[in-house]
Amino acid sequence: MKHTVKALLLTSALALAAGPALAQSQGDWTFGVGFGNVDPKSDNGTIAGGEASINDNTRPIFTAEYFIRDNLGIELLVATPFEHDISIEGIGDAGSTKHLPPTLSLNYHFPTNTAWKPYVGAGINYTTFFEEDSDLGELSLDDSIGVSVQAGLDYQISDTGALRFNVRWFDIDSDVELDGTKIGEAEIDPILIGVAYVHRF
To answer: How many domains does the chain have?
Structure first.
């Protein structure tokens, strides 16, 4: 969590240091395509009596954002399925799962008169788990709903195109069952670090 806060504070500081206004206009659309690395926090809770560990994964990500007012946009994040291995202290490899994390956010883009355009946002995340697999039995992870916050920085490379770097944090917790019996709760709470090309229409 500490590195999440540092990343968000750094990007927010860049926003506050930015120059005077040049609005992103009401009615604009942007579409982004890139890659995101989902990295769960280091302590992923207790499952089957042991400390759980969930690895990171990188997959393509996509965003669409509509500006409801100048500088203020509603954004949808989607991705191809992320896949994570799950290990448990004392057991070792316990299985794997795939997930999709669609996220709806309200973003504020700080107006600047430079090519650097920082933004911050907050919203709601719905994470659905599927294709769970384990040699220990029938593994199941419940879907999760939680908050998400983000900070990012766009660098304009043309009138309609930008390169984007952003950091998101998700509140993701999931009850874990094996053969229909609850064996613990996965506390995932990952950071997503993304890079993308964003096009404005």
So the answer is: 1
Q: What does the pLDDT look like over 157-166, one tens digit per residue?
A: 999 999 999 9
User: CB of 94 within 8 A of CB of 88?
Assistant: yes
Alpha-carbon distance values, 36 to 15, 16, 24 (Å) = 22, 26, 25
Q: What global pTM score does this model have?
A: 0.85
Model confidence pLDDT, tens digit, residues 132-150: 999 999 999 999 999 999 9
Q: Write a three-state SS string for 43-63.
A: CCCEECCEEEEECCEEEEEEE
Q: What is the CATH number of the domain that holds 195?
A: 2.40.160.20
Residue 56: other Cβ atoms inside 10 A: 15
Question: Residues near 14 by Cβ (< 8 Å), separated by ≥ 6?
Answer: 116, 118, 153
* Residue 127 near residue 144, CB atoms below 8 Å: yes
